[in-house]
Amino acid sequence: MTWNWEFAFEIFPEIASAIWLVIGITIGAYIVSLVLGLVLTFARRSSFKPLAYLTYGFIEFVRSTPPLVQLFFVYFALPAIGISLNKYAAGILTLGIHYSTYLSEVYRSGIDSVPKGQWEAARAMNFSKIQTWFRVILPQAIPPVIPMIGNYLLVLFKETPLLMAIGVGEFLQEAQLIGASNFRYLEPITIVGLLFLLLSYPSAVLINKLEQRSKLGFGTRKN
Amino acid sequence: MGMTEKQLKSSNKPDKEMPLVQYENVTKKFGDVEVLKGLDLEIKQGEKVALIGPSGSGKTTIIRMLMTLEKPSGGVISLNGEPLWHKKIGDKLVPADEKHLRKLRSDIGMVFQHFNLFPHMTILRNVTEAPIHVLGLSKEEANERAVDMLNKVGLGDKLDAYPEQLSGGQKQRVAIARAVVMHPKVMLFDEVTSALDPELVGEVLQVIRDLAKETDMAMILVTHEMDFARDIADRVVFLHNGQIEEEGHPEDIFETPESERLQGFLSRFLNT
Ligand SMILES: Nc1ncnc2c1ncn2[C@@H]1O[C@H](COP(=O)(O)OP(=O)(O)OP(=O)(O)O)[C@@H](O)[C@H]1O
Ligand SMILES: [Mg+2]
Fold first, then answer.
1. Inter-residue contact B117 to A121 (CB < 8 Å)
2. Cross-chain CB nearest to A120 (options B98, B109, B112)
3. Which residues surround ligand 2, an ion (CB under 5 A)?
4. Signed CA dihedral, A163, A168, A170, A176: sign only
5. CA of B14: how far to CAs of A125, B17, B31, B248, in Å?
6. Residues of B with CB under 8 A from a CB of A
7. What class is the A23-160 domain?
8. Is B76:B26 a contact under the CB 8 Å cutoff?
9. By Cβ atoms counted within 10 A, which residue in A93, A217, B66, B191 is the most buried?
10. End-to-end CA distance of chain A
11. Whose CA is nearest to atom 10 of ligand 1?
């Protein structure tokens, strides 16, 4: 079997048409993970111990079970207790929750790198707890971990083919369908790989730029 | 030596009855180690008190407990007659909640050994952030207050700089301005010159001297600068091993120390 350019050009638009769906799912799941990750970070540091332990348990549980199992659980098992989600919502939520546990770890490392003196200064200035977090701690904790946070966008993006398992028509699902009906898999699957490369590479370059920027100190940074 | 002038000034103050700050039988343990053993100490309105003593004698711990950075193990610390770490409910004292701490904390300011400026904010924002968001001043009012104070400490031309662009002495002067614009009733200084290069110590001490003369804030100064303590303090407290060994007027403490430990402590300082 040799590479057929004609066939490749013919099916390319069909596979690529999933691009908005894939981007939408990626961004949706990323936002869920960014926000939920922060919530988990706070909950884990709560002075209300049961909440802190529960959160810790949740994070460990989610991180040590495969995302595919979680996806099936959300999509196929949750309806049994009355929570029915469509496949897109289930996909976004599962990926979002899964990666929120990684992001909360990233946030935590950023927060731990803020010196104790900053907490003490915030208290001496009589900031409230919320002001301390959002005016003093997070603005120092987040910039150094922006590259890691950005990197999870790429990792998450590359995880989207997983949703094929519940019938979401992302790149791989489309390619698989085309392959099956034409008995040719070489072109469709290669195109999927190419699409991931085309989308990932510019993002990686962008994240690299961010990384350079976040290495600069506060005084030398513009704005 | 300006001493009489200051004494006059401070004896003129109204309401000399109730101490501004009062430690009653305050103890502090870290694990099994008792670092403060029943401290009794009063600071009057506007009074400048220097805390001196060997390393590990508990000076920092004393002021950190007042700043609510460290919780006492026993005893009561009061501010304006109100217990700091406790709340009165009827006759009973219960542990203070964050709301109570925040209310009382608004009368207390602190300058740290290592400045602890907010590195992600300009100098101006370091000084306006709390007035705007804690005191609720308008941006204009806060700016005016901050610029005024920064001019006073000689940094009016650094408003848009970031902390990392300043020298240690400049940073510490910003930190002083940042605390003063909150108009606390008592300011705490924890060895604020000991992290500085020797040639930068003078400028910071001068700012504190000027401040002490101009304001009626009380000050508690932990310091190893004996000339400075002598110059600025209404009273000097010498600590040893978590207890007050001797206290009094600076002249008495430095000229005619009574306890052997204080004599030893001072002679080590004068000889080095
Ligand atoms: N967080 C802590 N955990 C355990 N021990 C502590 C802690 N903070 C202070 N100590 C101990 O308490 C004692 C008093 O410390 P403190 O810092 O108040 O002394 P100091 O008089 O300020 O000394 P220095 O002149 O060295 O600053 C010391 O023995 C110190 O080791
Ligand atoms: Mg100390």
1. yes
2. B112
3. B 60
4. positive
5. 27, 9, 42, 22
6. 67-69, 98, 102, 105-106, 108-110, 112, 114, 116-120, 129-130, 133-134, 161-165, 178-179, 182
7. mainly alpha
8. yes
9. B66
10. 57
11. B30
Distance of CA A107 to the CA centre of its chain: 14
The one-letter amino acid code at B232 reads: I
Tokens of B208: 């504190």
Looking at residue B271, its pLDDT comes to: 63
Q: How many CB atoms within 10 Å of residue B152?
A: 17
Atom of ligand 1 nearest to the CA of B64: 18
How is chain A split into domains, by residue range?
Answer: 1-18+169-223, 23-160
> Structural domain boundaries of chain B?
114-183
Number of helical (H) and strand (E) elements in chain A, helices listed first: 11, 0
Nearest chain A residue to B186 by CA: give it: A124
Burial class (CB in 10 A: 0-12, 13-18, 19+), B256: exposed
Inter-chain contacts counted by CB atoms under 8 A, chains A and B: 67
Interchain proximity B102–A217, CB inside 8 Å = no
Chain A residues with CB under 8 Å of B132 CB are none
Give the per-residue pLDDT at B1. Answer: 39
| Nearest Cβ partner for A125 among B119, B120, B182 | B182
**DSSP assignment of A130-190, as one string?**
HHIIIIIIHHHHSGGGHHHHHHHHHHHHHHGGGGGGGT---HHHHHHHHHHHHT--HHHHH
Residues with CB under 6 A from ligand 1: B 30, 35, 53, 55-61
Taking only the tens place, the pLDDT of each residue in B146-203 is: 999 999 999 999 999 999 999 999 999 999 999 999 999 999 999 999 999 999 999 9
Instruction: Give the number of the atom of ligand 1 that is nearest the alpha carbon of residue B51.
Output: 21
User: What region, left, alpha or beta, does residue B243 occupy, with left being phi > 0 and alpha being psi -120 to 50 degrees?
Assistant: beta
Distance CA(A57)–CA(A96), nearest Å, equals: 18
ipTM of this complex? 0.90
Q: For residue range B208-224, list pLDDT tens digits in order.
A: 999 999 999 999 999 99
The number of the ligand 1 atom at minimal distance from the alpha carbon of B36 is 14
Query: Global pTM?
Result: 0.86
Give the tens place of pLDDT for each residue, B16-32.
Answer: 578 999 999 999 999 99
What pLDDT digit, counting tens, does each position of A178-210 carry? Answer: 999 999 999 999 999 999 999 888 888 888 887
The owner of tokens 């496949």 is A87
